[in-house]
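Posted in: Protein Modeling Q&A

I'm a second-year student putting together a small comparison for a lab meeting, and my supervisor asked me to include a predicted structure for Glucose 1-dehydrogenase. I've never done this before, so apologies if this is the wrong subforum. The sequence is pasted below exactly as I got it from our records. If anyone can share the structure token output, I'd also love a short note on what stands out.
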Amino acid sequence: MNVSFDFAGKVALVTGACSGMGLATARAFAKAGAKVVVADIDEAGLKSLADELEAAGAKALPVVCDVADDAQVAAMVDKAVEAFGALDMAYNNAGVQPVPAEMADQQLDDYERVMGINLQGVWSCMRHQLAQMRKQGSGAIVNCSSVGGLVGGKSLGIYYGSKHGVLGLTKSAAMDYASQGIRVNAVCPGTIDTPMVSKMMEEQKEAMDDLMKLQAIGRLGKAEEIAEAVLWLCSDGASFVHGVGLPVDGCFSCN
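Accepted answer (user: helix_wrangler)
Welcome! Here is the predicted structure, written out as tokens:
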């Protein structure tokens, strides 16, 4: 990537930081000079990532956090502020996929698991992050929705519903806080080369083939391409951008 950002002296928080888009974004924030709070349920992965970022000259704080647990989310934000004194930027990336099934065959426990992480988790992260940013009078939050937040899809109604909900939360929070120096936006990634998508390609080959037909660019997106969009939305270059669900999808949503 050729785009460069300067976040020296800023504090960024990334959930779901140990793989895929979260990992790429944590690395990008660190490269841009930010102090980075990396959060995930993978304790060993967090230690490895924090060591990697520190070895590259960044300051990193690993925090084990299940975003479906509001108390853990509150503690995560508290730890970030205690360690670095502020919270300037956050990328709420943690998410999971449901078991693919037609609506009539979907199970309540799978619905609750996906909604607890993908939707309640984003809401919980935002409310604690916004409370801190409101004290500061500044901040930028980017939530991870999906092209699945913009369209419907077969056998993934739970996932698509959760990602539509993320956009509703994003737009509503943006309206609440635009006048308070805080910007809230979302990215809507297309089909990105991540461990989650690799698993889908192995287990749901026909469905993935159908998805790729809709991605006009003709390739998977790169996690780093999502990271660049997140950093731009957090930068001064996006100072007039509020409440947007930005498609970064190789023209998937153009269909």
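A couple of things worth pointing out for your meeting: The beta strands are 11-15, 35-40, 60-64, 89-92, 139-144, 182-189, 245-248. The two ends are 27 Å apart (CA to CA).
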